[in-house]
């Protein structure tokens, strides 16, 4: 119960700070950010979920030198073989393994906070990221590690400039090894490279991770790759996928495959042809389009948008944070011991509201309305 009350209080504090926009020192901002994340890690020690259990399973198998591909990986680790080494280290800490992992994830989220400040040079915006409930709940309560690829993705964008493209792409390559989603948004950087073959650089570290794992764990390279790229997120909980299942009841493999391939085709065309002189604006718009169109979903994906809402002044960003936090709190409620199995009937409606807001943000960002609704960006990255 204390965790639930703290989550609601965090949302209230975030709302008040957004409205007041107080100025504080960077030391204060980072101290608050670190303490809040540690507090929520401690408050959530009594909860468990599928992802935390997956870390334990994969960590134990890795410590024993067992190959997890394809069976265990398909169920518990549909990623390149990289984060599993951290999961193995965590298992050496016994009952504190979840605390250790969440602390690492929260640490990278503080790194994202630093990058938000570097992009905006705004302490009020940095404070908002330090307090934003979406990132805190996903990293410190849920225990998802999207903060790590998000950190490297933003870092690659920050360092991306003429004659430094290789450095930027290699940094992104590290993030792509942990989770593949940064590869969906590589085009804004790839089109700005001096050489088109730079597009291959984000795949270098993932490829090395596969080769190293295959050698030491006696795994088949083809099986690893097929397992990773056969993964899809949850169907029927977000946007188009939710509407298809709710209105037609169709949730079979054929329906999902058609929806996925249609999404990939349309998204690829849009991401290839959409251009903007500012790489951050271009990335933000493409990311919004991804959320508009994807028929499958992982609730931790909401974390990707959090820094862009602050760096790019996306319209109605406050409502995105508030509704997104409400969606997370309702979705995480069944994990709290006092509420185990308590599925709230209105949770999907909150998800639809978040999706509808993202649709509105995408339309505003890509039409003349943007000049009337959105302030000019403070992050001048135009390479």
Q: What is the H/E order? A: HHHHHHHHHHHHHEHHHEHHHH
Q: Which regions contain 5 or more consecutive residues with pLDDT less than 50? A: 374-383
Major sheet details: 2 strands, antiparallel
Strand adjacency order, main sheet: 1-2
Q: Structural class, from helix and strand content?
A: mainly alpha
Please bin the fraction of helical residues: 55-70%
For the CA atoms, what is the radius of gyration? 20 Å
Number of helices: 20
> How many beta-strand elements?
2
Number of domains: 1
The N- to C-terminal Cα distance equals 49 Å
Shape: globular
Report what the structure shows.
The chain has 383 residues and is mostly helical. The longest helix has 24 residues, at 97-120. The chain has 20 helices and two strands. 67% of the residues lie in helices and 1% in strands. It has helices at residues 2-20, 26-43, 50-63, 71-76, 83-91, 97-120, 123-131, 133-142, 147-159, 165-178, 187-190, 204-216, 221-229, 239-248, 253-273, 279-293, 302-311, 317-332, 347-365, 370-373; strands at residues 234-235, 296-297. Helix 6 packs parallel to helix 17 (302-311) and helix 8 (133-142) runs parallel beside helix 18. The termini are far apart. The radius of gyration is 20 Å and the shape is globular. The chain has one domain.
